[in-house]
Amino acid sequence: MSRRPDGKLTHELFADEKNPQDECGVFGVWAPGEEVAKLTFYGLYALQHRGQESAGIATSDGERIFVYKDMGLVSQVFTENDLATLTGTLAVGHCRYSTTGSSNWANAQPTLRATTHGTLALAHNGNLTNTGDLAEYLTKIGAHSEAGFNATTDTEIMTALIAAQEGKNFESSALAVLPMLKGAFSLVFMDEHTLYAARDRNGVRPLVIGKLDHGWVVASETAALDIVGAAFVREMEPGEFIAIDENGLRSQRWAEADPKGCIFEYVYLARPDTSIAGRNVHATRVAVGERLALEHPVEADLVIPVPESGTPAAVGYARASGIPYGAGLVKNSYVGRTFIQPSQTIRQLGIRLKLNPLREVIEGKRIVVVDDSIVRGNTQRALIRMLREAGALEIHVRISSPPVKWPCYYGIDFASRAELVAAGLEVDEIRRSIGADSLGYVSLEGLIEATTIAADKLCSACFTGSYPIDIPADLSAGKNLLEIVNRHE
Known about the structure:
With 489 residues, this protein is α+β, with helices and mostly antiparallel strands. The chain is built from 20 helices and 25 strands.
């Protein structure tokens, strides 16, 4: 079952400057006797920060797979009645932010496809780097035309590839496809009886396993395990494939592990109450703030965060510097997506709907403002202007990541390199551009040290331009690659 939207597309308020976005959150559960749709709903709710464009859940009762998906937030897509119709013993769920394929209903996940072994429902977090080659392969073997593609995502490509295999079962079909995939992918998928999961050989995007009293959970982050009462068991290994059914969990390796975990998960993407590679994200961000204070000290009266992403680092900066910490900005938690496209004037004023200064706290003070990153610089420019209007004497901006100079091809929707302010300007030029009295970024060495993970086991390509996984020479089509291909067929 599925519901199409009314034709309206959601727009992100104040899209001139958006934070880097991860592609998706994935969740899977095998739990006979439990309300698996509701468990998946709450799991996706915990992963909402990873994608806000669409949400979907697929369940199986052992004979049929039911799918319900739509555009919007998890709480907007599903009602109590919707979840009641999604019966079964296992489920997969997905919340999406698009990095391959446009934001529309056809590209919402899980994807669904009939095969010779039953029905396949698949959810994906990450981004393939050989999507064009795989689409050409599907066309060559005739699977593309047979599928009647409506979606234009790498997820649809993977689903079609598995369905096109002639293996004796889903497991052998999936294991035949995984070595064909290049890039970053954390997959959760299912047939009528079994829950599967797989992670790319580099483990770019997180994926964890949890245990219920009478079942298993696989999710993008440990925070999703917490919300459904699942005990953390372990992270899935890079290059690992698992299957879960009435016989329990079985695992096998489809590729040798070469860990290259995304360092930006620690900076911004993951929830602060999540742990990755044994390291709590909140603790990492506090440690980054402490390192930032050592690398870029300044005489000031108050440290304030840009909520919420700058809060842990601001706590660390205040602790290490001895400068008092305070809440100088109030965030409206209810501003998000809207069906109303803002005018340019409203867009320019729009940051006040998200953040507003506390004049009584900042007036007459020299303040340190801590944020997680600068992408285009528009948000910081408007924020600094707002703080000066509220009476701040000096504004010293501190950023808990190095300058973002390169786009990501592994599942984060950064701006293009031409739009990244740090790609074209030096630090002091950026400072002048945003109107700050001083500007300091944490060093890459400091950020890596805070994660407690070895540098060679992390991907920091967005800071260095050194990509650990080969990317095509021409990626100018960006996330709309398959739409351009389809238009020319």
